[in-house]
Please model this.
Amino acid sequence: MNQNSLQPALRSFIEEFSNNCRFIFTCNFKNRIIEPLQSRCAVVDFKINGKEKVEIAGQFFKRALNILKQEGVEYDQKVVAS
Model:
């Protein structure tokens, strides 16, 4: 999202409709979001520790394999794991 054109327009849109709707934004780099937009948001930072990362990655891997099997897609487990 361009900080000079799109984000200020988004700010105006949020201000116009904030009385009757809610917005959810996701981003990887919150420092790239202009401060006026950040100030209108509640920040939820998802930090996952090392042990949880391994567990979540295992669950994700199993789910991906399950989907591939259900869809009848041929796959190599090493490729899926990478």
Remarks:
- Helices lie at 6-17, 35-38, 50-71, 77-81.
- The two ends are 29 Å apart (CA to CA).
